[in-house]
Write a structure and sequence with these properties.
single chain; alpha+beta; Protocatechuate 4,5-dioxygenase, Chain B; Glycoprotein, Type 4 Pilin; 3 domains; eight-stranded mixed beta sheet; elongated
Length: 471
């Protein structure tokens, strides 16, 4: 005969088993299940939210649990409160109600309801603390309802006179990146390290709504979701979209920083997306601006960029009215240099390359007229090695392949795939003769040399059409 205690244990085990089985089903879903989004007005942070919402299906999502920040918590006792609830949302925890306007939800609500036409929303707000029971309720609801998502919100650094905070040094956009990169990095680790997240979120100058983010992360950790940054910029509006991701020579008096992060069981933080390319292209332009103005600050990609997970070679470049005026790169070597570092190093060589090799030097007034390119070479283990005399057998002038040539003298040079696309009239002999001379040999030395055939992906920011071209 089972005792009441034993019966409860068995019942608890069945419920837990049931929840786990339902969770496994929801893990087959390919779209994200959660996100951290900024809450500033649509004029400023609207694009950052759009770049989150595009990842979520409009009509499949029926429930949103929204963890808001609280900007005026005086006279409110510590705890978790209900800020808002649609009457049709269903059963939720019995929480005390806050009767205050809170813009971290008010400014976002319309966009959520526009993107998810049939959604029901429940908004809860932690004030200075939360407990494990609310974490358990959130994770159970999300796990058991595949048509639900979890959102939380924060804006990052607030700088300027209007915020009574002059924390950032020139250039402000670069300095806020340095301040925030470890916080953002901690938010996309798997599993999340809560002691690090609390360490950074407790620094009040870095963000608003720290307890909202902590509660969100406790929930994400429990479900074991991973995160990926899909946008990162600030409130200083730019005419050129690329300049949202560029450190310019402008002194910014007031600035609020925004980050957009999506989460889910199948989210890969190391996968390169269009935002990562934009940020890299912006960094190339940033380094060129720095070199033109002989500035001493250090441009770099933030440590959470997926380019730090890669070692492959990269070429960067620019062109003006269709004419190349920089093409410089770094190959993959046996050292530990990451692709993220190679991108900035290569961009640093562009100033002299434009002036000395291409004879189309940079100037500040031409910067917005340039197209900016980044070309990612295949990892070296994918390169195919052959004797130079066998080039015609293995190399195709189809614009998809490039060649790295090493002469017997030890000198070397490469042609990227774009060279074949731009010189369609060349024969393979003509192609290799020019490459041999580029390497510092005579035009027939390639036949005794060694070649490596590789492919690459090229991303170009088209300054006239304001979009990325892939080739």
């Amino acid at each position: 005969m089972k005792t009441k205690k034993t019966h409860n244990k068995v019942l608890k085990h069945k419920v837990l088993k049931h929840n786990i089985s339902k969770t496994k089903k929801t893990h087959n879903i390919n779209y994200p299940r959660a996100a951290i989004l900024p809450h500033a007005g649509e004029k400023y942070a609207g694009d950052a939210r759009k770049n989150i919402l595009i990842h979520f299906p409009r009509y499949k999502i029926k429930y949103i649990i929204y963890i808001s920040a609280i900007h005026d918590s005086k006279d409110i006792l510590p705890g978790v409160y209900q800020l808002y609830k649609d009457t049709t949302f269903g059963k939720t925890p019995q929480l005390p109600i806050i009767n205050k306007n809170e813009h971290s939800f008010d400014w976002v609500e319309n966009e959520l309801r526009t993107h998810f036409p049939n959604v029901k929303i429940f908004v809860l707000t932690p004030v200075k603390k939360y407990d494990t029971q609310i974490v358990k309720w959130i994770t159970t609801f999300i796990s058991n309802n595949s048509n639900s998502v979890l959102f939380s919100t924060t804006d990052l650094t607030h700088h300027g006179k209007q915020f009574n905070n002059n924390i950032l040094k020139f250039p402000q956009r670069l300095h806020k990146q340095y301040l925030e990169e470890h916080l953002i990095y901690s938010l996309i680790q798997r599993p999340l390290q809560m002691h690090k997240i609390k360490q950074y979120t407790n620094q009040s100058e870095l963000l608003c709504g720290p307890y909202a983010i902590q509660l969100f992360c406790e929930s994400i950790k429990r479900i074991n979701y991973s995160g990926k940054v899909v946008d990162y910029y600030d409130s200083h509006l730019e005419n050129n979209k690329l300049d949202k991701y560029t450190v310019t020579s402008t002194h910014i008096k007031n600035i609020v920083s925004y980050v957009s992060i999506i989460y889910g069981p199948k989210i890969n933080s190391g996968k390169i997306n269009s935002f990562d390319i934009m940020l890299a292209l912006g960094s190339i332009k940033s380094e060129i601006i720095k070199k033109i103005n002989k500035a001493s600050y250090r441009v770099k990609l933030p440590i959470w960029s997926p380019f730090y997970n890669m070692h492959q070679g990269v070429f960067v470049g620019t062109n003006l009215n269709g004419k190349t005026n920089c093409s410089y790169g770094r190959y993959e070597t046996t050292n530990t240099h990451k692709t993220a570092t190679k991108i900035i190093e290569a961009a640093g060589d562009c100033l002299l390359d434009a002036k000395n090799r291409w004879k189309i030097p940079y100037s500040n007034h031409l910067l917005d007229k340039l197209d900016y390119k980044i070309e990612l070479l295949d990892p070296k283990h994918k390169w195919k090695k052959y004797s130079g005399k066998h080039t015609e057998r293995y190399f195709k002038l189809n614009g998809k392949q490039g060649i790295y040539l090493k002469l017997l003298s030890g000198k070397s040079a490469t042609y990227l795939p774009v060279v074949a696309r731009e010189h369609k009239h060349w024969t393979i002999d003509k192609y290799m003769e020019n490459l041999s001379e580029k390497a510092g040999g005579n035009k027939y030395d390639w036949k005794k040399g060694t070649i490596w055939i590789y492919e690459s992906k090229s991303y170009t920011w088209d300054g006239k059409k304001h979009k990325i071209k892939l080739s």
